[in-house]
Structure formats: structure tokens, C-alpha cells
Amino acid sequence: MLPNLKRYHRPKSITEALALLHKNSGSIFIIAGGTKLVPSKNPQVEELVDITGLELNYIQQEYGVLRIGATTTLQQMVESPILKTFAHGLLSEAAQLTHVSRMIRNVSTLGGELTTTTPLSILYCAFLVLQAQVRLVGCDEFALAMNIFLSKRKLDGGMLIEVLIPQLEPRTYAAMVYTRSLHSWQPAICACARITVDKGLCTSAKIAITGTEPVPQRLYEVEEFLENNSFTQKNIEHAAQNAYEIYNPISDALATAEYRKEVSRFVIHKVLSQCLEFADELL
């Protein structure tokens, strides 16, 4: 399915993998699950570096950071006891919604999904509100904020090793709301939110929405409106209207831009209301 493939490498260490990638960064590609690369029939692929043996398959919490390895599969994220409880299960649910087929989720990896993110990526939308970082290795080792990594996307002979998510502050609540048509399993629009509330005051707000080019985006103006204001239904209604006014969606096979814009008010209102319900339950 890759017409010009000539060599297949299976390195035993990250150092060995990087050495292979640096030899010919133009025609050598990383592979793990292969659910995106193999069907692409990319004629540029002449060599593959299989990283599934590099022990990058893990979900761990240590020193106040949640770490998810690059070759962790989507199904492992769905089933992880850690992710089912972290941020009200936001990442577990996002991984399940990424592919309807469990067979694909059993193979598709976190790293592969992030390097092929689309405007409809629910997983990326969830990572945005959790302020995730991507750890990369190449000539140097460093971490990038998720939105900066996705704006570049090219690894230039380097490797994505893991995703890092900082521990959530106390009284932080997260939620996801989406809509989809009767003709597709894939949500046409999805909103994620992470809200911190202290004595009725919103001290931190992170909100993201899918359906924008080139990838899902944070709604910074809506966040600024909510922060340092009372977290009430009245302010949630204002926030939903603000989101509607600034949201600039795309049209595609799943939905028109007009539909997404109209529905945006509902999904933002609903996702913020769910966070408010979580906060009220713990009062």
C-alpha cells in the first residue's frame, strides 16, 4: 500500500531511531499503528521506522504530571482507570469518539493522531483545555505547548515521545458536549471546557471548539469574559452568545459553516452548564 517502500527498521532504542531518522528525513517516516500512513499510499515513503518497541506505551501520573506515551493506543486511553477519573473522564471520552471502530482504536496511537490532527479532532480539543504539552526529542529534548506543536507539525528528524498534562487545580471541573448528524458517527461540532470555581467565582476558564481551520481552537475572548466573574447561568448565557459571535467555522461533508455557527451557541452553553452542575454538586 506504500508503493515505494524499500526498507523497514525496528530500532531498539530512541537513540537508534533518531539516528535512522537523521539519515534521510525526506523519505523516512515513523510508523506505529499505521492507520493513517499505510492507507495514504504516500509515494514519498521509502523507509519506515517502527517505534512500537521503544516502550512509549504508558499512562502514568507522577510528580503532579499526567504522562501519556506516544504509542499508547486510543483504546488504552478509553479503558485507562487513570483517564476515566482525570478531568471527569474528558480524555477517555475523547479517545472513544475519535474512532467509532474498536478495531481501529486498538491500533491507532496517540502520536499518530496528533501528527495528523484535523479541524474536527476531539482529542486535540480536549488537550487544548487541559493545557497539554508535547515532549519531543531530536538534536535537543524539549516540550512545546500543544497549540504551538500543531502549528508546526513537522518533526524534522525528531520524535514525539509523550504528552504531558499538569495536575488540575482544586475545584476544577471539565466537560464535553457534541452534536452529530444521523448519517455519521463523527461529531460535526464539539466543545470542551475546563473551569475552576472558588466560592462562586470563576478563577480560570479554558474553552475549545472543533470545526475551525486548521485545527480546533481556544475561545480566548470567552475565557476572558468568564474569568474573575461569578460563574452563573446568566454569565454562561452571555459567554455562549460571545462564542457564537466570534466562532468562524468551516463547511465540510458533515455540516455547513452556517449549521456549525448556529449550534455553537448551544454546545458552549451546554458544556459550561455541565461544569456549573459539577461545581454545585460539590458545594
Please explain how this structure is put together.
The protein has 283 residues and is of the alpha+beta class. It has 3 domains: 7-50, 2-Layer Sandwich (Uridine Diphospho-n-acetylenolpyruvylglucosamine Reductase, domain 2); 59-165, Uridine Diphospho-n-acetylenolpyruvylglucosamine Reductase, domain 3 (2-Layer Sandwich); 172-281, CO dehydrogenase flavoprotein, C-terminal domain (Enolase-like, domain 1). 37% of the residues lie in helices and 24% in strands. It is built from 12 helices and 13 strands. It has helices at residues 14-23, 37-40, 74-79, 81-85, 90-98, 102-105, 110-114, 122-129, 146-152, 220-226, 233-246, 257-281, and strands at residues 7-9, 28-31, 47-50, 59-62, 65-69, 133-137, 141-145, 159-166, 172-179, 189-198, 201-209, 217-218, 229-230. It has a 5-stranded antiparallel sheet. Strands 9, 10, 11, 12 and 13 form a 5-stranded antiparallel sheet that branches. Helix 10 (220-226) runs antiparallel to helix 11 and helix 11 (233-246) packs antiparallel against helix 12. The longest helix has 25 residues, at 257-281. The model has no long low-confidence stretch (mean pLDDT 91).
